[in-house]
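Tutorial sheet, problem 5. The four components below are modelled jointly, 218 residues in total.
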Amino acid sequence: MGRKKELLPGTLDLLILTTLMRSPLHGYGIALSIKRLSDDFLTVEEGSLYPALQRLLLQGWVKAEWKMTDTNRRARFYALTAAGKKQLGLEVTQYEQMIAAIGRVLKGA
Amino acid sequence: MGRKKELLPGTLDLLILTTLMRSPLHGYGIALSIKRLSDDFLTVEEGSLYPALQRLLLQGWVKAEWKMTDTNRRARFYALTAAGKKQLGLEVTQYEQMIAAIGRVLKGA
DNA sequence: TCCCCATATATAGTCTATCTATGGATAGAC
DNA sequence: GTCTATCCATAGATAGACTATATATGGGGA
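Model answer (structure tokens):
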């Protein structure tokens, strides 16, 4: 049926913002970080990641800057803005409420 | 920004199958049940629900039968098939793994 | 009696987000 | 010198959820 799902739809922005909360990172680094922290369970495809970063830039939640990486490559580093931090707080709250609500349905309270 | 989200995308089938696990119900009743169990947090729109039920029928996870409701109306009652029960088990497992993985990223393990 | 609300099903069209597929480029290892 | 991992990015396909709409009726209240 449906192809394999790498992510729960609707959670990508949350994952990216959370990752950037810890420290600015380039796109590839964001994907790696999410993959590793999730023990390889979550994979952010490039075709999802870069459009998502563009969206976040447009909304003013992150800002970008070209720099050199540790490994001596040019890369675009993304960092949270103040608005982005606020947005992250909002998304965490909404996510937790949503998960709790789904939990109530699953348990049949 | 995006319009208000009533559901976490990707969880609708899980919610429907779970609801039908308890007892056969008609579409309207499924929506009500999810709304009530979630304390009005989750709202299943008609335009999401009926297409989803068609999908589940096509996949053979539910079967349908026209009957009269308690309130004396014709309604289509949906019930889980054996395949549907199996699928539900699968989806619950995947969902829990997904949520756990997201949790690890959010907590920054 | 008549109107309205809650109940009940369903589809067409839109929108958004994710995935697939592809293209390009370079550092460093072997 | 070639290969792999690192890095960016977009076009197109797809899926799933939402909006809007259409239809219909039982039962309660004015």
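Marking note: The CA atoms of residues 13 and 52 of chain B lie 7 Å apart. Full credit if you identified this.
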